[in-house]
Amino acid sequence: IDFNHATFKDFENPEGMSAYERAAYFNEYLDFQQERGQLNYRLMGLTPSGPTIDMDIPGYGGRKPYVCLVSNDYMNFSQHPLVKKAAMDAIRRWGTGSGASPAIGGHYEYHQELEDKIARFFFRDAAMLLTTGYTANSATMLSLLQEKDLAIIDMAVHASMHEGVRAKNSVTFMHNNIEHLEKRLKESYGKFQTVFVIVDGVYSQDGDIAKLDQIAALAHAYGAYVVMDDAHGTGVIGDTGRGVVELYNLYDKIDIMTGTLSKTFGHLGGYVVASPELIRFLKFQSRQHLFSVTSSPAVVAASKAIDLIDEEPDMREALWENIRYFKSGLISMGLDVGTTESAIIPVKVRNLAKTHEINSMLLHAGIYATPSMYPAVSKKDSRIRMSLMATHTRPHLDKVLNAFDDIRTKIDISQKESERQE
Ligand code: PMP
User: Fold this and answer.
1) Which residue, among 408, 416, 319, 312, has the nearest Cα to 365 in the 3D structure?
2) Centroid of ligand 1 to alpha carbon of 405 (angstroms)
3) Which residues form the Aminotransferase class I/classII large domain (predicted)?
4) Cβ of 160 below 6 Å from ligand 1
5) How far is ligand 1, taken at its centre, from the CA of residue 346, in Å?
6) pLDDT of residue 35
7) pLDDT per residue as tens digits for the range 175-197
8) pLDDT exceeds 70 at position 378
9) Is residue 235's pLDDT more than 70?
């Protein structure tokens, strides 16, 4: 494998190697990347999560503050005094752990209150808490999708949904492509017990939004159910921050909605919102829920963050002002930001080596972004992925815009479609 053009995927199962040989070979590659400053699995912790973060990345000039564009803590609620206080009060009252899985004695009042609050937030009757957003997606599909069922999934949905459907009947449709979805629905009509159409609200790599009105109408016309993960939309999209369901006013049309407490809600955890019968079924059928401990009392941090969505709408407005300013700045330089309509803003590069080079130039300039490449996106679609926070200031954003302005004089950043690298 040529390390210069390799991706993590190439090391999953190289021909003829044992598990330990694979690990050793992958370690060589990780060392290669680390020496070049290309590994984003860095030791953080010099300063807390925020619009800037101090890091000491070898080769980049010692400890210095970086403008942080890698966090999904969109409102920076993880640092909000009331959110921190809620967690500390809960720990004082309940301790640090819940001690058991929910079905054998780990389901506490604070879990139930949070589940009720999440359901109410989306004007629905029932919700269920899981320990991560990843688990919420995978556990839901692992429990619901059975042998005679089918999942039709947008090919850009998050890895956790793909994981949930992997061992069962599933087909993909081209990203947000309504004609292709209809083709899939027609092909499968009448052949399965249940058909689920699975989408994300906001897509995590392009930051674009599902055509949910058309998708829901079509799915329901063919007797299929809609499953939507709105991890990146909740708290950000919609006048009151209810996410993509609010944008389309489809609260009662999305059969199953999942989300996370780890992004806008500044904590850790996941949830599923659905009918009371379905939620009860999942609570007693989902192995990830039945045989795994529940969230710790500190999860009430997320409960406070949910309140803040309504109590501090100016945070959402500040985030949107940042999004508009930053996006138009990038576009005015001729950079390709794709179809984003959220706080996730990519700059498409479409060439792996150039993506690494640009990332390195950004680090030198004191900017921490994510170089995103296969398998997170297709091989031809490498990009610099950035996410904005409500607490980024104009000088932070100007620093990034100026850096791109400088970089583009040295590198042709956005490749033409015809020059995309395989
Ligand atoms: N869904 C989407 C769309 C995501 O981007 C992510 C994580 N980045 C998840 C789910 C998983 O959420 P969590 O980090 O809470 O496990």
Assistant:
1) 408
2) 31
3) 67-403
4) yes
5) 17
6) 85
7) 999 999 999 999 999 999 999 99
8) yes
9) yes
Could you identify the atom of ligand 1 that is nearest to the CA of residue 232? 3
Does 58 score more than 90 pLDDT? no
CA of 385 to the centre of ligand 1 (A): 15
Give every CB contact of residue 61 below 8 A, 6+ residues apart in sequence: 364
Which architecture characterizes domain 80-311 according to CATH?
3-Layer(aba) Sandwich (3.40)
Res. 419: pLDDT tops 70? no
What's the CA gap between 237 and 222, in Å, rounded?
A: 28
Cα 272 to averaged position of ligand 1 atoms, centre (Å) = 13
* 71 C-beta closer than 6 A to ligand 1: no
What are the sequence ranges of the domains in the chain? Answer: 23-68+313-419, 80-311
Provide the CATH topology of domain 23-68+313-419. Aspartate Aminotransferase, domain 1 (3.90.1150)
Nearest atom in ligand 1 to 269's CA: 15
Q: Tell me the CA distances in angstroms from 343 to 233, 319, 389, 408, one per residue in order.
A: 9, 8, 8, 23
Extract the tokens encoding 105: 């004695």
Q: Which atom of ligand 1 is nearest to the CA of 203?
A: 3
| Total-model pTM | 0.95
